[in-house]
Specification:
4 copies of one chain form a homotetramer. The first copy, chain A, has helices spanning 5-15, 27-30, 54-62, 72-84, 104-110, 157-182, 192-195, 213-223, 230-246, 248-259, 266-276, 283-286, 290-300, and strands at 19-21, 37-39, 43-51, 95-103, 117-120, 141-143, 151-154, 204-212, 262-264. With 301 residues, the first copy, chain A, is α+β, with helices and mostly antiparallel strands. In chain A, the strands form 2 sheets. Chain A has a 5-stranded antiparallel beta sheet. Chains in contact: A-B, A-C, A-D, B-C, B-D, C-D. Strand 1 of chain C pairs antiparallel with strand 1 of chain D. Chains A, B, C, D: Belongs to the thymidylate synthase ThyX family.
Chain lengths: 301, 301, 301, 301
Amino acid sequence: MTLSAEQQAEIDAARANPQPTLRAVAPGMEKHLYTAQPVLDHGFVRAIDYMGDDAAIVQAARVSYGAGTKHVSNDEGLIRYLMRHWHSTPFEMCEIKLHVKLPVFVARQWIRHRTANVNEYSARYSILDREFYIPEPAQLAAQSTVNNQGRGAVLEGAEAARVLALLKSDAAQMYDHYEEMLSQDDQQGLARELARMNLPMNIYTQWYWKTDLHNLFHFLRLRADAHAQYEIRVYAEAIAAMVADWVPLAFGAFEDYRMGGVTLSGKAIDVLKRMLKGEEVTRESSGMSIGEWREFKGVWK
Amino acid sequence: MTLSAEQQAEIDAARANPQPTLRAVAPGMEKHLYTAQPVLDHGFVRAIDYMGDDAAIVQAARVSYGAGTKHVSNDEGLIRYLMRHWHSTPFEMCEIKLHVKLPVFVARQWIRHRTANVNEYSARYSILDREFYIPEPAQLAAQSTVNNQGRGAVLEGAEAARVLALLKSDAAQMYDHYEEMLSQDDQQGLARELARMNLPMNIYTQWYWKTDLHNLFHFLRLRADAHAQYEIRVYAEAIAAMVADWVPLAFGAFEDYRMGGVTLSGKAIDVLKRMLKGEEVTRESSGMSIGEWREFKGVWK
Amino acid sequence: MTLSAEQQAEIDAARANPQPTLRAVAPGMEKHLYTAQPVLDHGFVRAIDYMGDDAAIVQAARVSYGAGTKHVSNDEGLIRYLMRHWHSTPFEMCEIKLHVKLPVFVARQWIRHRTANVNEYSARYSILDREFYIPEPAQLAAQSTVNNQGRGAVLEGAEAARVLALLKSDAAQMYDHYEEMLSQDDQQGLARELARMNLPMNIYTQWYWKTDLHNLFHFLRLRADAHAQYEIRVYAEAIAAMVADWVPLAFGAFEDYRMGGVTLSGKAIDVLKRMLKGEEVTRESSGMSIGEWREFKGVWK
Amino acid sequence: MTLSAEQQAEIDAARANPQPTLRAVAPGMEKHLYTAQPVLDHGFVRAIDYMGDDAAIVQAARVSYGAGTKHVSNDEGLIRYLMRHWHSTPFEMCEIKLHVKLPVFVARQWIRHRTANVNEYSARYSILDREFYIPEPAQLAAQSTVNNQGRGAVLEGAEAARVLALLKSDAAQMYDHYEEMLSQDDQQGLARELARMNLPMNIYTQWYWKTDLHNLFHFLRLRADAHAQYEIRVYAEAIAAMVADWVPLAFGAFEDYRMGGVTLSGKAIDVLKRMLKGEEVTRESSGMSIGEWREFKGVWK
């Protein structure tokens, strides 16, 4: 990731100017504000603004007059109780606004999370930069042979080299053609809203994205998960690290009950109870499908 | 509206403790934070938190790196352009959180605005206070004879006195019975989640309510409108006054294009064009229904 | 529940008139259409319309051209897979529209489910009927002594009689006063939008409510749960019974993975693994709070 | 647009099998069901399912027991009233499900309408077809010189030929490389979730898209508008034609009040009033900005 001198100056200026506020302030998030956290080769996540902190969750749950409670330990217990019992509304009382630079194919997954506010850089209005995502060799994986929507072993040798060369030369060529079509030197110049259609989906775009903490947790649970595609997972992980600093109690509860948790079906509960009684349960006697049993054994091996 | 000494102390404490932040700060809103703005006889609106300011709208619309633009006049022009062309997403980048105390029948209208986050005081968990909305004599209006869902002339004399007396005595009696049923003196005491069902809908409830500026404008357009019921309109007006201080440029555009604006149908455009050419258009020659024509003449009388 | 002769005639007429359609038809739901399923003393749930069936979930998940698949067993496996892995979007492709008559205090809980479409009977525009929810003696419960938002033992003897008498006489009196205030005999008559505020929250209201199957499942999981208040749970149960007939495969998966399932925290997984190895784990050695441990033992006793 | 014989057979089979239903049936939409309406060079829109009709809007607005009203003329008056006064909830009681094949850059605009349900063909799971949008010569337009996000004159001669040739050869080459990278002949084969990133944004994707009539009208107002990009506008127009057959009364009201309507600011109302009195108003005396005045004169020339 490279920021222009001008962009860096704007970020530095924003960070140099603390002002007094009466709102809840989360010191753990203040230290991140505006700074661009690098993700992938040209991407980043920048926290632009936030609303609330751990105490604000408690305050809303209690519909209270004051700004917090007496004891942090009480706050933690209540926050864990709310998370455990799926009381989501108090978590919606915190909000975060991010500036994200990301490849278009990642943006297409991301946007499926509908409960968020988005302003994307417009390629109808402006010209996109010459920046494309080219995977690290370690990320250049083959199609998984067991998972229809996953990756297997890393490509090696000539095949890896061929793929990398293709990705690079195609991106360069497509951007050259984009510029050629747009050019107004001795020609009219194709409309931007049309020229953009020739660009590959590893080109970078940018957006402002704003959501509440409950929906952000939902995003993180799905996208920071091991089954998520690597290229969106690294964004989710970068965001998760900031959230841990912003609302440490809520994030701790989220980690325990959601990220580190597991949902058992009625069948799985039954099997576990039999196992606790010492019974040797097999796939056949479990009543589960092959896939279900594989996933079950993955946890309870 | 009366706050307990403890509640006022909590508000004072929150207002006494400015802290430095790197976020966008809106001085016009800082002065309102936490203070309870009285509405109706026992209600209030308190701004608890906010995110963003006029510059944040511009910043999101431009997906920019810095915190604002050079010239306020440019910001105003862009904000008016966005409002005029229904580009709503940049306005969604501002957020506000309110603590509201309001009668239940008002809350039932309010909650119909779905794009918002809400934590309401729980009458399953807690006991409601003995506070009921009793209208001012000037608000004790008869059913409108022209509008099926509106008010007509103010009630007078004995009828007004009778209504007021009924509202007051019924509220008092129902609350007495609420307490009687809940009481655990020499009896088990009815569950709170059941006892509450006997309370009338002018009892006050409270909630934390959080929404973005675009959806807040939508709320204000419908609820600060002359056709809205008085009892919700006064809340909308109290909020509007705070929003005018928070994001003056956006609020100015909203006032001009939404609150002070009007939508014309294709038929109405046609009629106005004929009138501009000097034609005398009648209801019959307008092609409008009776209701449409009355509304049209209401503006273009 | 009593329907007027006219209402029953309208329902009968709607049920008497099958017409051909090319859309997916769910025979299990057709048999319920329009019929009012009684709930509580005066309430009901009526299915008014639906979109899709089990095959439509599969069709959307596969973005297919045809109307279904060859084998029901394949559909079931895919639907269970989707449910197990929280792939919610295919379930959103089914939609249901209900007409519900319910007490206001139940409506106030229900409306908190925001992802739904609602048209409520307007008490600004019309006059409400004289119908109030009065609990069966078996539902007249004391406040729970262990759960702040729950019920304990059923009230008995004189206390139960006193409560019932109060609820009945208060409802009757409030409705008398409602009519008195509205009356235009020898007086102006208070506006309907004001008179309604004096009515208690056990009065019945009605609405059309429409939602997709994914959000309906979420509603059912929370409201058909043992912790939900009885008065909303009976509505959820009536709806669940219809859904089981409408989309039997999806409902089966929902029952197994959501209603009959349980979510384990990271801590709980760890404890279960130790128990599976034969360790005797206590609350102290579990690392769980008292509440967490009680809930854990409730499942794994 | 070309459908495979198998796809056409699936569509024909679905259309050949009418079944009885008790639900509201809209004959105007039945005739469209499943048939693929061609849009652009390879795209289409297919109506897969619908819920409700004009009478269902009225039924919900009245929270009625029966299926409709006595007189169509009453229905029309009420529907026009609801549209005129922005009573949106009754329109939400109709729902439509579409199968759409569209270029990715169009899908990226479309998805910004968040209040909808979507299942998109997964390029992680499956291999995309070799189908790219190549504009008709008449759509190959230059960048507008007056509108930063619009098109100007059509490209001509050598420039048009060059652009078309580039678009075609680039698409072909990128798809060749996509297949090369995926190939498992004598190599491992790149994961599908990675290979897709090299495809240009004029490749076609497909999705099931479901929304309610109110949100569909909002979509149509923005996307069937003259300012929308041509490539999404043609989809909106194809959908609008189906909606006109589905709910003719609601669509008529939508056309008059939304598509053919205009919103006037407070300033514009003032200017029109002065013009009606015979005053000659200039841009300077109007108080409007240059852009606002140009738009105003565009209507009231």
